[in-house]
Amino acid sequence: MTKLVLLALVGLGAQLVDGSLGMAYGVTSTTLLLAIGTSPAAASATVHLAEIGTTLVAGLSHWRFGNVDWKVVLKIGVPGAVGAFAGATFLSGLSTDTAAPLMSIILLLLGLYVFVRFTVAGLPKADLGKPLRKRFLAPLGLVGGFVDATGGGGWGPVGTPAILASGRLEPRKTIGSIDASEFLVAIAASLGFLFGIGGEGVNATWALALLLGGIIAAPIAAWLVRHIPPRVLGSAVGGIIILTNMRTLLRSDWIDAPDTTRYAVYTVIYVIWAAALAYSIQQYRLHRDEDRQIIAAAAA
């Protein structure tokens, strides 16, 4: 019972972060399942099974608060489902340890770009409101779905920073659209795992506990993201991308940094992140009316 309560709390916390920042549900939940001895394929399959419910509720909640661009959802979600099914079917039994550091470098660079762009320059203005092309979203969806299925998480970390970096979609709609499209990815990945490994190692009770926690958090996160200023939200998302992927790199076989080095790096990142958030809040207050006019014009 204690383990189930813990899983439900993890699901709640992971969905609260995911629904607010557009990433981290899969990574957080999968990490916990691996820590208690679940195999990588079974952990990913269990999490994706839970995500069918959490992403449905999250997508509906974001839609209710006006955070979803349905054109973006279809353009990225359908290719994402294809990539997720392929990754779950053909690579569910393989380790992604070798590919993880390389992917982390790419995501780290994207995170740095998002972090600096939003913190220093604020809400990107030049391209806001311009359509996101299928030739950009389709490959992004394929890669994101593939990484998500094989790594137990990755749809948000791949899709959210890439779309934010384009400067064409405001942060709350980026997060809402990524969360809504993840429903298609979760279904496709679950079908792929069912085809690839059947029900072996998949714990339906654990999936239900994760699901219940996520369902509670989804509407709260969708409401929260609508009220966080875009500049602050961009800085927050960029910071968590940097921290998450730096952690992966420092713990990988490529670097294998000792604990003292890792903790020192984390401390520096936290200090810079806190300072950046404080600066973003200050600048948002100074330019509040201007940012609201830009967002209203882009939505018109």
Automatic annotation (TrEMBL):
It comes from the Bacteria. Keywords: Cell membrane, Membrane, Transmembrane, Transmembrane helix. GO terms for cellular component: plasma membrane. The keyword Membrane applies. It is found in: Cell membrane; Membrane. The chain crosses the membrane at residues 72-94, 100-123, 180-198, 204-225, 232-250, 262-281. It is a multi-pass membrane protein. PANTHER family: MEMBRANE TRANSPORTER PROTEIN MJ0441-RELATED (PTHR43701), MEMBRANE TRANSPORTER PROTEIN YTNM-RELATED (PTHR43701:SF12). Belongs to the 4-toluene sulfonate uptake permease (TSUP) (TC 2.A.102) family. This is Probable membrane transporter protein. It comes from Paractinoplanes toevensis. The lineage of its organism: Bacteria, Bacillati, Actinomycetota, Actinomycetes, Micromonosporales.
